[in-house]
Amino acid sequence: MRREWILCLIAVLVPTGAHALTLAPMSLAEMTTTAETVVRARCLDRATTRTEDGAIETVVRFEVLEVAKGDPAKVIEVHQLGGEIDGTAMVVPGAPVSEPGDEALLFLESARGGDLRVVGMALGYLPVVAASPGPAVVRVAPYLGAGFEGGGLRPVGDVLSRVRRLAEKPR
Questions:
Q1: Domain 23-168 -> CATH class
Q2: DSSP result, 94-142
Q3: By C-alpha distance, which of 47, 33, 101 is closest to 78?
Q4: Full-model pTM
C-alpha cells in the first residue's frame, strides 16, 4: 500500500514534458489590426531549417497575388514552426502547413528578428479553394465577427474587401 502512495506522489509531483498552447479566436477586425500585411498568396516552395536555438522551422516562399494591407514584396518568406530535417520531425498542432501550389489569405506580422509569421498560427491562414462554378472561396469561422456569424464559404474578393475597409479605419 505504501508503494502505491509513493508512486502516486511521484506521478503528481514530477513535472512532465507536456506543454499546451491555447489560442483565443480572433475576429477579422482583430486579425487585420494585428497583421502588418494581409495578402492572397500562392506557395512557391518551402525549406526546413533549424533556428539559432535549435528549433525546427519551415521557411515558405509565397508569390503575392493580391494585397489587402501593407506593402509586401512580390515574393515573401514566411516562417512557420515545425517541419522535418535530418530525420527529425517537429509537429506543431495549430501551425499552418503549406505545399507548393497552395493558395491562402495570409495575415502576417513581423516576429523577433523581422521574420514574417502568420498571426495566431493557423488563425491567420485561410486556405483558398477554387469553386466551380464561381469565384475562389475561403472557409470562414463564425468567430470572425459581423457578417460571418454562420461561418461557411465566402468569396475571396469579399473577404479581402472587408479587410481593406478594416485596414483603412483609424485605430
A1: mainly beta
A2: T-----TT-EEEEEEEE-GGG-EEETTGGGGEEEEE--SSSS-EEEE-G
A3: 47
A4: 0.83
- Identify residue 133 by its one-letter amino acid code: P
Which amino acid is present at 16?
T
Residue 6 φ/ψ, nearest 5 degrees? -65, -45
Here the cell at position 68 is 489587402
Output the tens digit of pLDDT for each of the chain's 171 residues: 443 333 333 333 344 444 445 567 898 999 999 999 999 999 999 999 998 888 899 999 999 999 999 999 999 999 998 999 989 999 888 888 889 999 999 999 998 788 999 998 888 999 999 878 889 999 888 888 877 888 889 999 999 999 999 999 776
Amino acid at 23: L
Are the CB atoms for 142 and 8 separated by under 8 Å?
Answer: no
